[in-house]
Amino acid sequence: MPVAEWITFVVAISILTITPGLDTVLVIRNTSRGGWKDGVTSSFGICSGLFVHATLSAVGISFILVQSAWLFQTVKIIGAAYLIYLGICSLRSGWKAGSLGIVANQISDNEFNMKRSFSEGFLSNVLNPKTAIFYLAFLPQFINPEGSAITQSFILAGIHFILAMVWQSSLAFVIERAKSWLAKPKTNQWLQSLTGCVMVGLGLQLLLSKNVRL
Fold first, then answer.
1. In degrees rounded to 5, what are phi and psi of residue 165?
2. What does the pLDDT look like over 92-122, one tens digit per residue?
3. The whole model's pTM is what?
């Protein structure tokens, strides 16, 4: 994959990672419940679930490649359009104050349970249809049809795993110190609007690039 595409993937997946959503809410909630260890373990469970989505995506991509190269290109175009759609949704959410009024108000002293934290993170990710759809729509943008779809999907998921672990673990670490800031509607509004603009821009770039034209 060309360097420009690697950069595009890292930027896009980073935006996806930091965009407030179910994963962010779960990490903040569990950190609030059982401290930093609870949040980090939940993050590990969430990120481990990415490989399940990568496997399902690779199987779908492989099937599409067997059927038709034209169909593969069509899926890439749909994926680029879906990225734009997510960006627009993020922009719309940015105008709604308080969409992330999370339970980061108090850090409790509940006992940390590693199995519980990991299971909650893993299942919340694996059972999240939005993540599954995103992987199936997004990964084909960066898959070389001449190579192994499964290998490439796992490499891309591995990059996502690292970025997400770093972000979510850092988030868990600062919850106690920045809980009041994170709970502010204005903060969420600014973050949603910014990430929405970037995602729309990336989607347009992918849609207009020669790699996704029929």
1. -65, -45
2. 766 664 544 444 444 444 578 899 899 989 9
3. 0.67
DSSP string, the chain: --HHHHHHHHHHHHHHHHS-SHHHHHHHHHHHHH-HHHHHHHHHHHHHTHHHHHHHHHHHHHHHHHH-HHHHHHHHHHHHHHHHHHHHHHHHHHTSTTTT--S-S----PPP-HHHHHHHHHHHHHT-HHHHHHHHHHGGGG--TTS-HHHHHHHHHHHHHHHHHHHHHHHHHHHHHHHHHHT-HHHHHHHHHHHHHHHHHHHHHHHHSGGG--
Arithmetic mean of pLDDT over the chain:
77
In the block, residue with structure tokens 């492989």: 62
CA-based end-to-end distance of the chain: 19
Q: Computed over its alpha carbons, how large is the radius of gyration of the chain?
A: 18
CA–CA separation, 44 and 48 (whole Å): 6
